Amino acid sequence: MASEDVVGKTSETAVSTIFNLAEEAKIASEGVKAPSHAFLSISKSLVAGGVAGGVSRSAVAPLERLKILLQVQNPHSIKYSGTIQGLKYIWRTEGFRGMFKGNGTNCARIIPNSAVKFFSYEEASKRILWLYRQQTGNEDAELTPLLRLGAGACAGIIAMSATYPMDLVRGRLTVQTEKSPQQYRGIAHALSTVLREEGPRALYKGWLPSVIGVIPYVGLNFAMYESLKDWLIKSRPFGLVEDSELSVMTKLACGAAAGTVGQTVAYPLDVIRRRMQMVGWKDAASVVTGDGKSKVSLEYTGMVDAFRKTVRLEGFGALYKGLVPNSVKVVPSIAIAFVTYEVVKDILGVEMRISD
Fold it and tell me: Which is one Gene Ontology cellular component term of this protein (predicted)?
């Protein structure tokens, strides 16, 4: 597949791209901190962001798992018909542990993903702003929403490529049930099994729709969040802003709006990514249906073929399976992440604000 051919090059250059961006931004900046001080500041920021991501994802883990199960379930053997019914079914059949299945892998993925994403966004923003000021000749110019979208897209692509194997494993661990013929015992076992049975390229199945989906999702998140904050501070509508500082609730509203728009636009690509990740897993049909008897077609030749088969066999609405539980978790996830980040930031004395 074309996506598989470019995976190696993308993964190979992801890290070098980050450091190139960092170096260029450092040269363009007005002053440079001592290496040890800069490293400590960045490390503290990444720890705060990682803890916030882990806590927020754990809080909405049941909804995250239900979303994935809705995305990949067999249309001819429906077990999950909605958010409330789906959560009740998981609780009844798998208990408390079933609600959080795959969350350990998710948290393990979130920490490096958040680290790479936010670091990349900060450095890409600095470099893009420097280039923009050089081009316009205006040293006081600020990033436009479109430029922020570009910086967010770069950050999302790099982070997704760097941590994609963990995302694939998380999807499989989340989908499997007690009735699955083969059980992945954990992250390491799942990675080794996929490598042994399906080959290294299998770790990047569904990478192309993931990267394409990341562009509007992460890009819109950053662009809308920062643009909304700037607009509120400058226009001060309805008396929401005092002394050029947004309240916690106003920031949460900005984040919720940005997250909702971004995930709605990118959601169909997320569904296709999940389905492509199941390709090659010989027990995927049994896992998805839960009865070991019914079979579901999981053979796709690529992203376009996956889109075509999904819409033809299940209708356009199938591209938004699991959207409700995904939307329900957006607001509390952002709220918890924000509060946790602020607490950890204060404890560690973080100087640089990743989200701002």
Answer: mitochondrial inner membrane
